[in-house]
Design a protein that fits this description.
CATH topology of the largest domain: Rossmann fold
CATH architecture of the largest domain: 3-Layer(aba) Sandwich
Bound molecules: NADP nicotinamide-adenine-dinucleotide phosphate
Largest sheet: 6 strands, mixed
CATH class of the largest domain: Alpha Beta
CATH superfamily of the largest domain: NAD(P)-binding Rossmann-like Domain
Radius of gyration: 19 Å
Number of strands: 12
Strand content: 15-25%
Strand order of the largest sheet: 2-1-3-5-6-4
Structural class: alpha/beta
Distance between the termini: 36 Å
Shape: globular
Oligomer: single chain
Length: 272
């Protein structure tokens, strides 16, 4: 009898999540039986019961999102090299011995989609400015550094940007730019890794209004709801090629799904 995959997502809050639709689509596309459930675990609540279910193979795979991507690390037995370098996980599973593993598929998911959106341009390493220094910025910075890019980080709390730069300095030391000076960058790629622009705060933007983008720049906004954020509108009006984070979401989900099931799903285009 074929396995019925029991998959899910741990985070809080999860009302907005598109992951169940994505993974149900993957299950159907791969001809597999299963379900993908949302497990809301508030910041102070205990993650261990769900991890025990994973260890005992009552669950076959879990994704992890805000606020648990770093909090769950001490509860795991093994990390993939990417998860170790990023120091945050979004994909969990247990091996045959019941050891709990953590991986980070945000990093390769971002890098994959950068190339999917910008083609040959993205394959030549350049200088990138990352706006924000939280969990997603860690993954993006790691992916770009590994790809040979020069990286600058700008966050409203300078100490957070400096801590991220220090953490990643074994790869190649990222620079730090004061948040107030972000509009003066000469970077070829500008990545938004803050929630600015995300619904319901759709009028906010991480890029200072009425500020030109650097010549020949590209913009990648990790936010995908709404599909055209205010940042993407600014880029479109300036004639700057730009992409939202939907493709990254799909790519990181597909990589997690392959890890759990061994099946590589065809990439759907579910965005409304
Ligand atoms: P996070 O860990 O909370 O980090 C958010 C970063 O943005 C922090 O540096 C934070 O600074 C900064 N920030 C928050 N509000 C700000 C504001 N009003 N002005 C300036 N900076 C602000 O969140 P995350 O996990 O990195 O996620 C960041 C964004 O990426 C979210 O919108 C998330 O949905 C999106 N994301 C997309 C994907 C995808 O697959 N497309 C994957 C992961 C994340 P403080 O610490 O000072 O608040």
């Amino acid at each position: 009898m074929s396995r019925c995959y029991r998959l899910g997502l741990i985070g809080y809050p999860l009302g907005h999540s598109r992951s169940p639709a994505l993974h149900q689509g993957f299950l159907a596309a791969c001809g597999l039986q299963g379900e993908y459930r949302l497990y809301e675990v508030a910041p102070g609540d205990d993650l261990r019961p769900l991890l025990t279910d994973l260890r005992l193979h009552r669950l076959h795979g879990l994704n992890v999102t805000i606020p648990h991507k770093q909090r769950v690390l001490p509860l795991l037995d093994r990390l993939t090299p990417t998860a170790q370098a990023v120091a945050a996980v979004n994909t969990l599973w247990a091996d045959e011995e019941g050891l709990l593993w953590g991986d980070n598929t945000d990093a390769p998911g971002f890098y994959h989609d950068l190339a999917a959106c910008f083609g040959a341009w993205a394959r030549r390493p350049r200088h990138a400015l990352i706006l924000g220094a939280g969990g997603a910025a860690r993954a993006v910075a790691f992916a770009l550094l590994r790809g040979g890019w020069q990286v600058t980080i700008s966050a409203r709390r300078a100490e957070q940007a400096q801590a991220l730069a220090r953490h990643l300095s074994s790869a190649a030391a990222p620079a730090v730019l004061p948040w107030e000076a972000r509009g003066q960058t000469t970077a070829a790629l500008i990545v938004n890794a803050t929630p600015l622009g995300m619904a319901p705060h759709t009028e906010t933007t991480p890029w200072p209004p009425d500020t030109p983008f650097p010549p020949l720049a590209r913009v990648y906004d990790l936010v995908y709801n709404p599909p055209e954020t205010r940042l993407l509108r600014q880029a479109r009006e300036a004639g700057v090629p730009a992409a939202n984070g939907w493709g990254m979401l799909v790519a990181q989900a597909a990589l997690a799904f392959r890890r759990w099931t061994g099946c590589t799903p065809p990439e759907p285009s579910l965005q409304d």
